Amino acid sequence: MISMSARLAAPPIRLYNTLGRAHQQFKPLQAGRVSLYTCGPTVYRYAHVGNLRTYLFADLLRRVLEYNGYVVEQVKNITDVGHLTDDSFDRGEDKMLVGARLEKKTPEEIAAHFTEAFLADERRLNIQPATHYPRATEWVPRMIELVERLLERGLAYESGGTVYFDIASFPAYGRLSRNTTAKLLAGTRGEVDPHKHSPLDFTLWKSAGENRQMVWPSPWGPGFPGWHIECSAMSMGLLGERFDIHSGGADNVFPHHEAEIAQSEGVTGHRVVSYWMHGQLLLLSGTRMAKSAGNFFRITELEEQGFDPLAFRYLALQARYRSPLNFSPEGLAGADRTLRQLRRRVAEWAGGADGSRADFPERFLAKINDDLDLPGAMALVSDVVRGSLAPGAKAALLLDWDRILGLDLDRAPGREDLPAGAAELLEQRARARGARDFATSDRLRDELATLGVLVIDGPEGQRWRVGPEP
Length: 470
Hints:
Blueprint: H1 4-9, E1 14-17, E2 22-25, E3 33-38, H2 49-67, E4 71-76, E5 84-86, E6 91-94, H3 95-103, H4 107-124, H5 140-152, E7 156-159, E8 162-165, H6 181-186, E9 202-207, E10 223-225, H7 227-239, E11 243-249, H8 253-268, E12 273-279, E13 282-284, E14 287-288, H9 299-304, H10 309-316, E15 325-327, H11 329-349, H12 360-368, H13 374-386, H14 391-405, H15 422-434, H16 438-450, E16 453-458, E17 461-466
Parallel strand pairs: 3-4, 3-11, 11-12, 13-15
Antiparallel strand pairs: 1-2, 5-6, 7-8, 8-9, 9-10, 13-14, 16-17
Helix pairs in contact: 3-4, 5-7, 7-8, 10-11, 11-14, 12-13, 13-14, 15-16
């Protein structure tokens, strides 16, 4: 954490607020403390790297706030109740039940397995643990209470054991996504639920069907909560009826976060969230990475291919969180090589002569406080690496900045830091030299060079180093 005097002299933090579409100076509700709610996973499948980019954005936001001296209380929910596959108009099958059927497990077993897998994937990416991980199933009584209050206020209605939010009773509906009722009605398709006053009304509590496994008693009969009410219950239950920041993916803006605003403000009668922040999507060949499209990778798959999981984190730092990021194996391989080289240089510089750090600390702070300008911060990393600062000063700067970057720059380089595929090529080359097949040996040396691995032959055999030729 930076010193109090440095924090007072630091440039103000400016964040882009989706509500209003503007950069705003960050002012927390309570001096020195920040309350942050992050929409977490629905644990019916493994998370892919597109999902993890959203959680990485929230991690960077939290690290920037903490670097500036704030104490951050972060809530990240685990949706283990499930919701419908078509969340816009509450049609389709329940995601948790679909996952349970496919895996031949109970919904509870599915939730436990994929929750642990999600948390393990976050650890691989150095995403810091949240302060709280509430499970939706633990908050159903609170959800029922909120639905009852919305009914009392005339903002909801019950029909056939299902409770709907009446968007006509909340004129501000649509301000986050900048949708109008007319525009939304024009986009409705298919058969309309006859129990709804309007096709746009969304479900707060759903009446259970005959085959429904996850069911709770309620004043309206057995049923289960709608997706949106879950986050209203957990965010306000843990952070209070006013909190600082709500983060999520750009795909959460509508309908999920729009519905959250309607519910939470409908219950309280006032604004609940000060800043709404959304990370953009990860693309693969220009197309959104998604489970439904089948065009996704797990972070464990990249690790199995020989990539350091933090190479994906390095890759994500090259784009602003509000910009789409195109993922490619070539881009990941380049990030993997550069990260390993950077760790090697930090190890070489550590303990060396220290000296002036020029104005780099101030420039770095200005970048990260400008709506998390991580590409600008990474440009400063390159300036330090190539610049004329003393070795010890370089190492000290980079290790301090790594509190934001989260790249494990203090990790001692070793054989595991070879780029993907390099270890196998080194073994092949050793065998070729042992067989005096020097043509193959030379070819493999050239291949290794393209991966950033310099091979040096000596009496004791081949040695290697990651990085350019000295």
